[in-house]
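Morning. Coffee machine broken again, so started the prediction first thing and wrote up yesterday's gels while waiting. Chain of 432 residues, entered below exactly as on the submission form.
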Amino acid sequence: MGPNVHIWRHSRCRGAGWALTSPRARSQAVPGTPRHPLVLTETAAVSLLNCLFLPRVAEAASLPSALPLSASWKELVAMWLPAGKASGRLMKNSSTSPLAEKQGQTSMEASSQSVQATSGYPSTSTSTSTECKPQVLPVIIPILLSILFVACLVLNSTSLWIFWFHIKRWNSSLILQFNLVLMDTLLIPIVPLMVTYFSLGNSWLFGQFLCQLKIFILSTHLYGSIYFLTLISIHRYLAVAHYSTRTLWKKKSFLKKLSLFVWFVLCIQGLPLFFVLKTSVLNGTVKCLSIHQSEFSSVYLYYSIFLVTISFLLPFGISLICYALLGAIIMKMSSTSLRGRVMKTKSLQLIMVSLAIFIICFVPLHVSRTVGVIVKYYNMSCKLLLQVEIAYYASWVFTLVNCCLNPLIYNFSSEKFNESFSKSLRKFRFFK
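Came back before lunch.
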C-alpha cells in the first residue's frame, strides 16, 4: 500500500475529500458552470495539496510543508510552481532505486483508484485501455475464395442458361429454384472484391459506396438463400404429402407474388446494414466489414441477434420440421412402383443436401459473427477476438460453398432441370 493511501487516511485528507463533494463546496462553485459531483474549490485544492503532494515537494525543495487554507490560486501558483520545477530537477538528478520507483507507481495507482471511487467516475487513463489490432489472415482464405468463385461462376451460369433457354414450361417448384439461382448470381460480382481485400492484408481500396454495396449484397444473398431454401422445403413437403390436392402452393401466380415479397423483405432487411456498416481506418488501413470496427457496435449487436433469431433460426426450424415430416411420409411410401422409388430417392437426396447447406454454409457464419460481436462489444479477451476473427472470415468461405451445392437441389427436385442438364452435358461431350 503506497504512502498516499496512508496520507489519505489522515484527518486532513478526509476533510479535503469531504470538501470536494459537500453541499458547501458545491455552493461555492461559479454560477453558470455545469453541475458536477466533483467541484474543486480553492479551499479543497489547497487541502488536497497539503495532504498528498506538498510534503514531497517541500522536502525536495526545502519549502514549507503546508499552505494556509486562505491561500488563493494566484498565491498557490506563485509559490509552488517554481518549487515544483525545482523538485522535478532534484528528483531527476537523484538516484532512485527500482524498489522506490515501483512503490511510487503503486502509490499513484492507489491514489488514482481512491479518487475514482470518491468521484464515482471511471478513470480515463490510457494505460488501462488495450487496443486489439487486426491481424493478417492466412493466405489460404483468398485462395479458396478464388477457387469457389470459378466453380460458382461455371455452375450458376450453366443453371441460369438452362432455366432461361431450355425449360419452356415452368411449374411452381421451378419458380422458387430460379429465384435461388438469381441469389447466387447476385454474389458473383462481389467475390473478386473480397479476394482482393483479403489478398492485400484486409485493405479496402474500392471506396465507401462499394463497401456498403458489398455488405448489402452479402446480406441479401445469405438470407435470400435461407428464405428460398425454406420455401422449397415447404413446397416439397406439400407436394408429397398432398399430392392429389390442389393447394395454394401449386399455383404459379401465388409463388410469383411470394417471391416478390421475399425480395422486398430482403431489401428492407439489408438497408440498415447498408447505412450503418461503412469503411473505417484502423492503424492506417481502410477496413470494410471488419470485426474490429467499433462504430455503432451496440446497434450492430442487437441487429445481429435479431437476424440470427428471425432470419436464420426460425427458417431453419421450419425447414427441419418440414423435412422431418417429409421423411416420415417417405419411410411409409411403397417402393414397388417406379414412380414411388424415384420420388423417395429424390426426396431423400433433397433432404440431405438442404440440411448440409444449412449446417455447413450458414451455421458457422452466424455462430462466429454472434460471438465476435459480443466479444467486441464487451471488450473481452483480445486473443479470443483474434481467434473469432479467423473463424468469421473462414465462415464466409463455407457460405460461398452454398453456390456450388444449390445446383444439386435443382437436379434433385426438378425432373425438367435434370433432363435439360443431361442433354446439355451430352452435347458438350459430343462437341468435345
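Confidence is low (pLDDT under 50) at residues 1-12, 14-42, 80-130. Going to sketch it on the whiteboard this afternoon.
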